[in-house]
From TrEMBL, chain A:
GO molecular function, one term: oxidoreductase activity
UniProt cross-references to PANTHER family, sorted A to Z: DEHYDROGENASE/REDUCTASE SDR FAMILY MEMBER 7B (PTHR44196), SHORT CHAIN DEHYDROGENASE FAMILY PROTEIN (PTHR44196:SF3)
Similarity annotation: Belongs to the short-chain dehydrogenases/reductases (SDR) family.
Organism (species): Marinobacter segnicrescens
Protein's recorded name: Short-chain dehydrogenase
TrEMBL record, chain B:
Annotated keywords: FAD, Flavoprotein
GO molecular function: FAD binding; oxidoreductase activity, acting on the CH-OH group of donors, oxygen as acceptor
Name of the protein in question: FAD/FMN-containing dehydrogenase
Transmembrane domains' residue ranges: none
InterPro entries: FAD-bd_PCMH (IPR016166), FAD-bd_PCMH-like_sf (IPR036318), FAD-bd_PCMH_sub2 (IPR016169), FAD_lactone_oxidase-like (IPR010031), Oxid_FAD_bind_N (IPR006094)
Annotated FAD-binding PCMH-type domain residues: 1-178
PROSITE patterns: FAD_PCMH (PS51387)
Amino acid sequence: MPKRIVIIGATSAIAQQCARLWAAEGASDFILVGRNADKLEAIAQDLQVRSPEVTTHTETCDFTDPIAITNLASALAEQGPLDILLVAHGTLPDQQACQNDLTIARDAMLINGLSPAYFAEAFVGKMQNQTSGSLVVIGSVAGDRGRQSNYVYGAAKGLVERYAQGLEHRLADTRINLTLVKPGPTQTPMTAHMEGQDKMAPLEQVAGDIVRGVKAKKPRRRARLVN
Amino acid sequence: MSKVHSWGRLGEYNHDVEVLRDRALAPRQIQGGTPGLAFGMGRSYGDSCLNPDGKLWKTPGLDKLIRFDPEKGRLVCEAGVLLRDIQRVFVPQGWMLPVTPGTQMVTVGGAIANDVHGKNHHVFGSFGDQVHSILLARTDGEVLRASVDENPDWLSATIGGLGLTGVVLEAELQLRKVDSPWLDAETLPYESLNEFFELAGASEAAWEHTVSWIDCMNTREARGIFMRANHVCGSLGTGPMPSGKKKTMPFVPPVSLVNKLSLAPFNQLYFYLNKWKAGHSRVHYEPFNYPLDNLLEWNRMYGPRGFYQYQSVVPFAGAREAIRGQLDEIRRSGQGSFLAVLKTFGDRQPRGLLSFPMPGVTLALDFPNRGQRTLELFKRLDSIVREAGGRIYPAKDARMPAELFEAGYPKLHEFLTYRDPGISSAMSRRLMGY
Ligand SMILES: Cc1cc2nc3c(=O)[nH]c(=O)nc-3n(C[C@H](O)[C@H](O)[C@H](O)COP(=O)(O)OP(=O)(O)OC[C@H]3O[C@@H](n4cnc5c(N)ncnc54)[C@H](O)[C@@H]3O)c2cc1C
Ligand SMILES: NC(=O)c1ccc[n+]([C@@H]2O[C@H](COP(=O)([O-])OP(=O)(O)OC[C@H]3O[C@@H](n4cnc5c(N)ncnc54)[C@H](OP(=O)(O)O)[C@@H]3O)[C@@H](O)[C@H]2O)c1
């Protein structure tokens, strides 16, 4: 049986790299979710060429619409159990711009905080009765504490962490494993404009950690913090 | 502006870096403004991949595979894909790139722009010979397809075209079938140049990969190790897997670790190590083809002043004298390197107007940058190469005089008509006026 893997924010560099590693591991059916159909299609093609055992579907969705997210989770769950759900989307807003314009701050908190929580919530409801499955949410070390340079982003990531903690508690007696991944600065498009690239973690390393973390799910099913 | 250096680390230069990630958007990103240049993995040693104070379009984000035809073995991919990734995806499926250079950490676009060669030139030619078609974006907004049937002149200009004809977005590559990742290799020490030439001649017919390491510190005769290998055919068992361990040169040492004292012992060590191991072995293609790839950033070893590589090719007629002459000059100068590679190219003409490979013998050496002394030595090597009717490899060069470039590349004038006026490099300004 191919693994069914749903990736939310499938065009993210970290998510793409994870998908390539999963594709190399064996038969998988990827459901790639994003907001840009052409970009998703290019990623789907790439995965199929990388492994003849891969099949793909792409879905677009409004990431801030709770109804659309609920419907997507229902539709996908109806087609069968999910082995992995990776929630990867996010954006690093300009902190100063958020301070000057609260609509920018709101949008940033929505896409980095509420939106991942919506997805996790919608899919947990569908996955919790499965006999196995992994739910992976990407947070950030930026969520550990507020800093003047990026506290809007940090606050949203902090929300994701608290939410994941609650879900993990709720999942304690199920067979679903929840992993909150908290990367440090990583070489991806999100950070491409920042100084000190060579001090950041390589993309391949972070994705490798995520994929290994998912595979090595602990029987205690505790949220694993990968830094 | 960010600081960027090439593999030789001769200097760091300010560049206005723009990252290309989406092949649909790239043609617009490169349009207009001040001249720019594509930059792959920066594995070129000199100034061919630099455009100081100008724009640099980084391509490794163009890393998607697009199509694979398993009947014909043809792969279409974006130009920033690493050769390493193509190998790792396709070897398990029974296919491999026919030609790769001594590192697989280079992009498809970079491999095309320098028309890179491997150890099997006499069998497969150079990288450009495997390119079926390309999609080329020009800075005026035009995107053109070039293949053997369609715009073939643009293909010959872009293969070996040093990135100056446009930005390659996609390429269609011919892969070759392989049964396994292993090679059966043979190592033969040799004690003189004559012996090298005999081995090279005798090995061409039966061996796909041939290369030799040469010890250029030895005072008597040139001596070295000749390596030859063939891919293991059929299901003739297995071999050792490479260890995935990577070691990094953790910092730039304040002085070059490569000086006269450390060089000679290193070369001798290498010689005896291999002499001791002379004979047959089964090796995975990665350690055989890319011996330094596990020592990440070994180029830092040469210290803050960086290093040059000098790679020439001379035609077979007169090659013995020209190689001997170069080795003598290097030995006398006491500046040689531990990385000296001597090999022959097969008797075939390359496709690119500015391609480096030609029938003959190529010698490649690293030199720690000792300023004027090193440049003086290169002048003496230049005159040997010029006399022999040879040429210098631009991928490795940071200093050849324009006159030697023109003499070595007779199709230069034809090439110039294909240049994209919105693209310029430190090398193109040095050797072609703009
Ligand atoms: C350890 C080592 C061993 C090597 N061994 C060999 C060898 O055996 N044989 C050999 O031939 N070479 C060898 N090389 C040289 C290397 O293969 C070439 O310099 C190669 O071109 C580097 O590719 P890159 O992706 O790093 O390109 P870069 O060095 O970044 O760029 C090289 C050129 O390609 C152009 N370019 C890059 N991408 C594009 C694009 N998309 N469209 C148009 N132009 C583009 C750039 O403008 C530049 O002119 C070796 C290098 C190293 C470090
Ligand atoms: N890179 C780092 O240093 C770092 C560090 C810690 C945590 N993280 C986290 O890691 C995750 C992946 O990031 P990355 O580094 O891979 O970044 P990336 O490559 O920039 O990817 C960002 C992803 O988020 C999507 N996205 C952004 N805004 C969206 C919106 N409004 N609606 C829908 N999708 C939207 C993007 O979609 P499009 O492609 O359509 O734009 C893209 O898929 C994020 O959660 C990020 O916060 C990153």
